[in-house]
Structure formats: structure tokens, C-alpha cells
Task: structure prediction
Amino acid sequence: RLVLKALLIRIQQKWGQEEKEEQG
Result:
């Protein structure tokens, strides 16, 4: 479903941002 895909993408983006913040 598109909704599920969008949710997964959002979660991945959030994780990526968190990881970047930790590294930064």
C-alpha cells in the first residue's frame, strides 16, 4: 500500500536525521 511505503520512507528519513545529528 502507498500509505505503508510512505510511512516506511518517513521512518527511514527520521532515522537518517537522528544518525546524522549523532555524527555531527
The chain is about 90% helix and 0% strand.
